[in-house]
Amino acid sequence: MRNLESIIREYREADSDRRLHLFLDCPSLRNEFVEIELHSGTQEKRSIFGDGSTRPSVWRRMFSYAHLV
Hints:
By secondary structure, the protein is mainly alpha-helical. It is about 55% helix and about 10% strand. It has a two-stranded antiparallel ribbon.
């Protein structure tokens, strides 16, 4: 089994698809992953509509539905 620190490092460096895979694959590390998401620069993303507005990231919306933010 991989070292927990290496998994967390991989999560920090991963794209959103890989992050989701790690989140689902490593339930014991989900609290750490949530902390990374809440404190990362990915909390707000540019709108895909190109109007310059910001919208909450997928993670931020998911956490808000679960009442975590």
